[in-house]
Amino acid sequence: MNKNHAAHPSHSANATVANNCSVHMCAANIGISHPDIVVETNTLSSVPPPDITYTLSIPDRTVSSGLLSALQLEAIIYACQQHEVILQNGQRAGFLIGDGAGVGKGRTVAGIILESFLKGRKRALWFSVSNDLKYDAERDLRDIDAPNIPVFALNKIKYGDMATSEGVLFATYSALIGESQAGGQHRTRLKQILDWCKPNFDGVIVFDECHKAKNATSTKMGKAVLDLQNKLPRARVVYASATGASEPKNMIYMSRLGIWGQGTPFKTFDDFLHAIEKRGVGAMEIVAMDMKVSGMYIARQLSFSGVSFRIEEITLDEQFKLVYNKAARLVRETQTATLGLASRKSLWGQFWSSHQRFFKYLCIAAKVRRLVEIAYTELQQGKVIILCVFSAKLEELKLRLLGKIAELGKELPLNTLDELIDRFGGPEKVSEMTGRKGRVVRRPDSSVRYETRAEQGLSIDHVNIREKERFMTGEKLIAIISEAASSGISLQADKRVQNRRRRVHMTLELPWSADRAIQQFGACACVCVCLRGVVEVANIVAVYLRSHGALTHGDRRATESRDLSQYNFENKVGESSSLSTIIDYSLIFYMKQGMIDVGIFCKEPRLSQNTERDCSITKFLNRILGMEVHHQNSLFQYFTDNFDYLINKDKKEGKYDMGILDLAPGNDEIHEETQEKFLTLGNPQEGQVILYKVHVRKIRILVLLLSKDALN
């Protein structure tokens, strides 16, 4: 083995390359530059990382050949340096890698495992979202010249069998809660993993795509992630995800960061959560900055220079409006017919769930024709497409409603995925990466038939991998990808693949979960229909983009290149605006007109003078989808007018949360008044906070443009 590398800090000024972003300057003077421009938000780049004290053991040939770039080596060094810290509760400190797509989290994680192996720790755990990502893990290790580190898939090992001794044990998050009763013995995967690790395990545990553990208190899988960390207190934990810290409440599984708990300002996670949520977006930005300064966090992303984002709005034709209105009236009739069963909560839960899905997919179907037109235009320009898509009386009543549904079904659009594939030339032209087992295909004689997606000797997951290969080699130039296949799969124009055409990412269906949207977003055209209730999903994503930028990148403006801010209604202003809208408009006007039932916005779905209102933005936007088009659009217009008025009012009164703001040098005069220094006996290392109080004098220049007549 070669002599050890000693890395030294070389933090320098950052060059601005885009709004709110600066070129990331690597703090370690080691390795070859990353092949692409990588940036860091201005807010996050305004604070330096800690000095580097860790000595790297990765071989010279790996560093000098560029198998790991300088940026990836920087993350490896800081992760290993943080792993040397023992928190006050006796557990080893962990590290969070929040790098975006393209920076190379996979190679970085592989590098951390290689470093650990070279230090004599020959066992590591790697958790991810799919068993097939094991092949990606093996590829990442090969790419950094570490093919001798074996990777074992836990799903291929029998319960209780731990014949493997050294290497990487690869498993999915769902495997953590696996159980077996074979042979009358109760066995669990968690115990099997702990037995393999053995007591005093101090190897690496990688939680890749760690956002999957965000519901750590409410799901068995999330609790298992916490349990594993508690039972292996000396393990070197690495959290890796572009969306791992999307919201403060989703950080609960990151117990090794040392932000809360013994010896910190927050005794429990709930104390931390309450303090951050109480102070809004600005507090989230400060948390991200503090995490970087403390050496527990790094977050870079590829520059969005040259990347475009646009929202394509589609005007509905009269035929679609007619079908939509028929559907809305039929749903309202169904709701009215079942009012007597309002006490059955499970029934109403199913009703509103079906209501939401039906209108969502009806809206998606309206986008197909325009999306195909855009796609063909982009293909003619030498680009490739990536699409992202998710009693006797009662018996008589049921039969009547089913009859009407059958009639309406004749007018409803075709299955969106099948129609898209057909319009693009069939399965021979399109790489489909979804969870579907089969599809309806149009044959050359215009007949249609159902075909299985399975190929000989391949599972559905392996079919998706094969389809990915066909896209990356250029055999197919259009890819359709769903949530089932989105996490962990990269379709970027990688320099190692044949198909390096510019990617055009069209989002036909925004995911219900906002952090899943970030996993999919790149150079993106978001296709929306001119139907105001459709913005519900865009609203969820817009809310997330703001908080994601604030916490994950230290700047809520970090996501402006993927801006959906016009759809962000989920805040205190939005809540008051929706209540005002519902009370002043829908309950008075629409009830009088008999066009809508107050029940769609209230806990009890029936008309009543004393109905308890349970209104939220999400519910409001979900439920108006069930209104006829013109009613829906007019109600939403009233809502947005209210919203804009209240936002402007709060801004004028200084009540609107703007987060951390830049003091623009421009024509403003800035004078420092006082400076206070606060020493924090923090964890994991000591630091200081300096509070500056400044006076800003804004200078306004009034320019008068006078016409010749006025001068005369």
**Low-confidence runs:** 1-19, 547-565, 601-613
List the total number of helices: 21
Can you give the helix content as a percent range? 25-40%
Largest sheet, order of strands side by side? 8-9-7-12-13-6-14
Tell me, rounded to a whole number, the average pLDDT.
76
Secondary-structure-based class equals alpha/beta
What Rg, in angstroms, do the CA atoms define?
A: 28 Å
Give a short account of the largest sheet: 7 strands, parallel
β-strand percent reads 15-25%
| Overall strand count | 25
Give me the oligomer status. single chain
Q: Outline, from the CA principal axes?
A: globular
How far apart, in Å, are the first and last alpha carbons?
87 Å
